[in-house]
Structures are given as C-alpha cells and as structure tokens.
Amino acid sequence: MAGRVPRARLRNAAALALLTVLAACGRIIPPGQPPVPPLAQPAAPPVANALLAGVAAGPAVTDLGLARHDALGALQSFRESCPRLTARSDSSGLTRPADWVPACTAAAKWPEAEPESFFHTYFETVRVGDGRSLVTGYYEPEIAGTRTRQPGFDVPVYRVPPDLVRARVGDAAPNPDGSQPLGRYDESGRFVPYFDRGQIYDGALAGKGLEIGWAADPVEMFFLQIQGSGRLRAPDGTVMRIGFAGQNGHAYTGIGGLMRERGLLGSGPGQYSGSMQGIMQYVRENPEAGKALMRENRSFVFFRELTGDGPLGALNVPVRGRSSAAADPAFVPLGAPVWLDVDRAEANGLWIAQDTGGAIKGPNRIDSFWGAGDEARVIAGGMSGRGNALLLLPRGTLARIGTVAGSK
C-alpha cells in the first residue's frame, strides 16, 4: 500500500512516522565533554542499493526453523507476487527477473501441506550490510463512513483532483530525483504548489464533486490517510474499501516526531506514549491543539475505491495480514521473502516484501502489515522491533553476483 511517497503509503508510513519517532536513539556523550553540534560531523552519504551496502551469505534456510503456518502464508503471498516478480526490474541490484522463474514455477503447484520444504528447496539467505533491522507495523483501518453524505458523516474522502498535475519542464525546478513536482496551474497559468492539508480542511476542494465517500471522524480519517488504505463501514453494515490514489505533492511531516520534539511524548506526567494510540489520545484530549498539529502535516492523500479482496501494495497485488511487509526496493527485491528475528516475537518469521513506504528507507528497514480489525490496530500501532533481517533469494544468487559466500 507500501507519496506517492513512493507507494501508497505515506502509509504508508504506518505507524511509520508515528512510530519512527521510536527509532531515534540518543547519543551518549562522555562525562566532561561538550556536546558535538549536529553539523560538526558530516553525515555519511546514503548507500544507493543492496550491492553497495554489501551482502554476505547467511545460514541455510533449513536452519531458520520455519513454522508451517508461517511458511504457508508466505508461500501464498509469494505466489501472488510472482507475475510481477518475474517481469519487473530489481533496483536492489541483486536479482534479475529470470532468477525467480524456477521458484515461481514451482510455487504455482507446490503442495500446501509442505510449505517449509518449498523455501528450503529454492532459496538461500543473504545478509545485507550488518543485517540489523528496525521493524514497525501498519494495518488496514476500518472507520465509520458512507458513500453519500448523511447526518454525522461530514468528513470528505476525496478522489484525485483533475487539476493536480506535474509541472511542465521549465515551469518549476525538478525534484531531487529528476521528476517534475506536483502542483497546479492557477488562473494566470502560473505553476504553484497544490493546496495543502490546512487549505483542503478549510474548503479548497469543497463543491467540486470530488467526494467518493464521507467519514464520521476527522481524527480517524487523518490516521487512515497515514495508513494509505482502509475501509468505510456504513451504519447499515455495508463496507467500501478505499486505497491510495495520489498525494498533493507536499512533504510528509510525522506528527509523532513533532510531539517528541515538543516534549509531549514519554512516560512523565502530562506526556503520551509514542504509539499511534498515544498520539491519537493526545489529539482527542486536546482538540484545538490537535487540529493545529494535524495541519502541520501538509501532505494530503487522495483515494480510489478498491474492489479486490485486499488493499493493494506497491506490486499492485493484495497485501495479506501477517504475511506481507513493506521494504525499500533499493535493498529488497519487491516480492522477495524476508526473515525477521527481532525483539518483538509476533513479528518474527517469514514475510513477503510487497509494498513500500515513505519512511521505509534503507537496508533492513521493514514495515510489517497486520491486516484489519482491533487486534491489527493495536499490534501495528505499537510495533517497534529491533533485531536482524535476512533476505531469501533464489539459490545461486550469491555465486552469480560474485559475493564470497560463507555463513555468518
């Protein structure tokens, strides 16, 4: 569902920037030494992809101790990824489409009574960089909403506006990646930034016929935008599934990070937990400050109706709770299995990387998907696990790319 920040997800960011605030580590300064100013030491340049980060062989797949139910869910999600996996280029530099054909061919007919043996037979493990992983979570929210406006359902769910476009070459400076920025052309024909969240809240899009639904609660709708997809459940029990369709071009700002900077998160008096639930509690208990805080995230997500049996990830296949995850495609081939061993037991096991996210960047950065419902909401909202990650790649990958194999 991994603006597009790259894929649906700001999610998408899934507890993403809400939860990446939990990922920040304090720096210990020796006694008697003054703090080093943040800019006194140059930051290390970002590593471009998995090959440049360095890869090495991990343990045999048979040594991972795959659980049958875990392997079965991963096998089913892997099957769904295969049509994309065998056709798309891999920006990690690790694999080619043809590398996946033997495993995908076998997966189509593999007996589901023996899912572990599928992974034992067709894969080898690879450690990217030092393998140290940060794992967060996201889920598919279900909130009160209707297709048509009704009393008590006044929060618009917008489709992509037709005037949201990319600048023509020469009308605006390109983005750092070379793409043209998103925005709109005003009445004079000048390219300008698109309406931000505050302007949209104030009615910039009202009356233009862009509403595909109406939600009951603005706070729930704000957090559904962060997840990037979700369900609107009407009073009569009917459900409308919506998914990411576009974004207004403004940079995403995690309100959890802002709250931490302002001393609002923590365990002290008057502070709130850094989980999604804690951040939502602050917004509800402080309605005026909460409204202002939400406006500081100028990014705004537009939706479309989904008709399949699950929210779609970056591979354009459904993501499955407890089997699908988001990763950075520069370090993980989308569609590849990922093995996690972290300090949150519920996140351990085998996942299939089928999505991306705005805050899911760098090697071994994983955002686990937990499906829908109250349990998924609780787990995803509080997920912040640290440990190790391994990629499962087709047998022979390490030998082909010339990496020295040797279990670690």
Overall form: globular
Strand arrangement, largest sheet? Answer: 3-16-13-15-14-17
Number of domains: 2
Find the CATH superfamily of the largest domain.
Answer: RlpA-like domain
Structural class determined from secondary elements: alpha+beta
Radius of gyration, Cα only, in angstroms? 22 Å
Q: pLDDT under 50 segments (min length 5)? A: 1-44, 404-408
Could you name the CATH class of the largest domain?
Mainly Beta
Give the H and E element order.
HHEHHHEEEEEEEHEHEEHHHEEEEEHEH
Overall CATH architecture of the largest domain: Beta Barrel
Q: What is the rounded distance between the termini?
A: 33 Å
What is the count of β-strands?
17
Number of helices: 12
Summarize the amount of helix as a percent range.
Answer: 10-25%
How would a textbook summarize the main sheet? 6 strands, mixed, barrel
Mean pLDDT: 87
CATH topology of the largest domain: Barwin-like endoglucanases
Strand portion: 15-25%
GO molecular function, one term: hydrolase activity, hydrolyzing O-glycosyl compounds
Keywords: Cell wall biogenesis/degradation, Lyase, Signal
Signal peptide: 1-23
Enzyme class: lyase
